[in-house]
Amino acid sequence: MTDFDKGFLYTAVVVGAFLLYNLLRSVNEWIYVSRLGAMKNTLPPGDLGWPLIGNMFSFFRAFKSGNPDSFIGSFTSRFGKAPLYRAYLFGKPCIIATTAETCRKVLTDERFGAGWPKSVSDLVGKRGLHGVSNQERKRLRQLIATPVASPEALSLFIGYVDEIAKNTFDTWERKEEPFEFLTEMRKTAFTVMMNIILSDEVHDEKELNRMANDYTLLSHGLKAMTINLPGFAYHRALMARKRLLKTFSASVAKRRMMRKGDESETKKDLLTLMMEIHDDEGNKLSDEEIVDLIIIFLIAGHESSGHAVTWVIIFLQEHPEILQKAKEEQVDIVRRRESPDSGLTYNEIRQMKFLQKVILETLRLVNLSFALFREAKTDINMNGYTIPKGWRVLPWIRSVHFDPENHANPREFNPSRLEDGKVKLGTLIPFGAGSRLCPGADLAKLEISVFLHYFLLNYRLERINPKGDVQYLPATRPADKCLARIKRLMETSA
After folding, report:
1. Which residues bind heme (predicted)?
2. H/E/C letters for each residue in 83-135?
């Protein structure tokens, strides 16, 4: 072969590869955009990535590289700063909302319904809060508002949290070797939620550990590719759901039988409250709805709370002046009690004004959920762009929480930024907003507050790797799961 032939062949290969690359990159655009007609001219900037996988490779690359915000940054660098971008994520074309204004519009506009990936609806259930219509969700929210968020219910639940929190820290303090604080905190938060939900049916430690492990598998599957084959996270999560479904269905059936007998023997807990509640027409929650709600509450109650407690403690240890202020608030609460030996009350939780700012600032910085998931129920015009019917819409929480226009020095831990009147509407959304605001937000903050109360009064954390790496999937966490020791303070207050 002559040099000319080699050069021609090389050029042909390069040109062919270039053409193939551009052809593949345009397949999703052709499938999903070309059918929109004139509407395609008003779509937000962006691209739909590769066939089938869309932008998922760049999504995983960003989140696993230690720089998750580079994912949105790549859109900004290529298409300029915009309030909305188009992409293809989790199996569907989508619109990413990146500003506080557009996120608030999406979260409060009833033209957007639930848009969670198939993996979420498959794993948490189709009769819970994630997979139902807006109208059905409103009904469920109204029904569970009293069992989950009323002062009476929260006052009841404190008793389930208080004793476990005190005993757990005491147990951890006696450990001589370092342990994974996050792992143990998640297990403990799971035990707390099991007590809150099924007070008189809490299983033995071995059973609790098995169920907690199933919940870990379930959580990992929520943000995984929907590949239902052995060895993949989604398949393992489906198997875990089947086991949990069997366990909780049996618990609900058993409780129904007990209530047919002597209801006075049934201890008050979340399951009992969910069985008792009814709407104005006398309609109650079905067993299927109750089981799916239990699965959702346990995911949020132990995953989110366990991570939140861990990160609050980490940030407080890194900022001694803020830790001292938070501790002084807790000491003052104990000092005002008539009896120093009495446990926490709901009224005392409400007095923890500064601690609530610490919790919210932690959730702003950590972003346990990088985005929320909605779906356009009709063609919608927003900020001069068109959001097509059926497209998924993702309010990108990280972009809102780290926007310097919303929060000065957004990477800095500063609870004082949340003083009354300083937070702009829609710029702090760790629990969502609008009609789909997390109904268990108050319960989660209560659980977190109880654990932090006893930690601040009596303990300190000694991390083994304080400068260690952070991982961002499936949730933001220290790579070493916060390997640490718990030490009792020389002078304790409770």
Report:
1. 438
2. CEEEEEECCEEEEEECCHHHHHHHHHCCCEEECCCHHHHHHHCCCCCCCCCHH
Tell me: is residue 94 an annotated ligand-binding position.
no
**Cβ atoms of 462 and 398 closer than 8 Å:** no
**What's the sign of the alpha-carbon dihedral 169, 173, 177, 178?**
positive
- Distance between CA 397 and CA 372 in Å, rounded? 7
In this structure, the chain runs to a length of 494
Helix (H) or strand (E) run with residue 380 in it: strand 380-382
Report the SS3 class of residue 198.
coil
Of residues 463, 468, 451, 466, the one with CA closest to residue 487: 463
Q: Are 447 and 305 in contact (CB under 8 A)?
A: yes
Written as six digits, the tokens of 439 are 């109904």
Residue 222, judged by CB atoms within 10 A of its CB (0-12, 13-18, 19+), counts as buried
Q: Which domains does the chain have, with CATH numbers?
A: 14-488 (1.10.630.10)
Asked whether the predicted pLDDT for residue 386 surpasses 60, the reply is yes
Which element (helix H / strand E) includes 186? helix 181-197
Q: Look at residue 473 and give its three-state secondary structure.
A: coil
Judge if pTM exceeds 0.85.
yes
Phi/psi of residue 201, each to 5°?
A: -130, 25
Distance (Å, whole) CA 13 – CA 341 = 80
**Which residues are within 8 A (CB) of 328 and not within 5 positions of it... i.e. 6 or more apart?**
none
pLDDT the model gives residue 14: 47
**What is the C-alpha separation between 133 and 215, in angstroms, rounded?**
25
**pLDDT tens by residue, 8-19:** 555 554 444 544
Residues 6+ positions from 83 with CB-CB distance below 8 Å: 44, 97, 98, 99, 101, 102, 383, 385
Q: Which residues contact 423 (CB under 8 A, 6 or more apart)?
A: 417
Spatial CA neighbour of 149 closest among 452, 369, 430, 438: 438
